Amino acid sequence: MKRLRLVLLALMLFACEQEMAEQPRYDPYEAAPGWPDDQSARLPVPGTVARSDRLEPEPTTLPVPLTRTLLETGRKQFDIFCAPCHGKVGAGDGMVVQRGFPAPPTLHEERLRQVPLRHFYDVMTDGFGVMYSYASRVTPPERWAIAAYIRALQLSQHGEFDELTPTQRKRLEAQP
Ligand code: HEC
Q1: Does the C-beta of 129 come closer than 6 Å to ligand 1?
Q2: Distance in Å, CA 131 to ligand 1 centroid
Q3: What is the pTM of this model?
Q4: What's the fold here for domain 68-157?
Q5: For 161, which DSSP code?
Q6: Beta-carbon contacts of residue 135 (< 8 Å; ≥ 6 apart)
Q7: Lower Cβ count inside 10 Å, N or C end of the chain?
């Protein structure tokens, strides 16, 4: 009697395992007749919010004070993530470009000198043309730091002598 119960129990467990392994399901990308486009892989319903999505609107201008530390962070991140293509000064002549990747525009062209910082932020977030998105590698605060540093780079190439203070002028003139 005892043995019979054991056999029955084993059979029941086996049956249970069978049912889980064979429950109705779709294999990845399997066709699913009946859905509007016959595909089993469904898109999230409109309005779905990913856990990692930022819910508050992005600021339109630099959301933190412009400090030397911020610019130094920007330079570090720019040199790591952007300079390989854009070049250290932003002239569009980085090493990857020298090896055949399509050349980006120089960051010193008139249009890019006029765009708001938010444009650089958006280009990093969403990508631009053939340039892919940096959202997974550069955090939002780092994107602002890089944007501020790009503006500093632009100024570095377009500074006017007249804009310097007398002390700065003297230091510049003293240089060989
Ligand atoms: C793999 C090379 C590559 C890297 C790395 C790269 N870019 Fe680009 N970037 C490009 C190319 C190419 C374009 C031009 C894209 C086009 O017009 O199709 C571009 C365009 C741009 C533009 C100009 C957008 C406009 O309005 O014309 C900005 C600004 C920019 N990149 C910023 C950045 C920043 C900031 C980083 C670093 C976080 C970065 N890029 C990293 C290749 C790169």
Answers
A1: yes
A2: 5
A3: 0.75
A4: Cytochrome Bc1 Complex; Chain D, domain 2 (1.10.760)
A5: G
A6: 124, 125, 126
A7: C
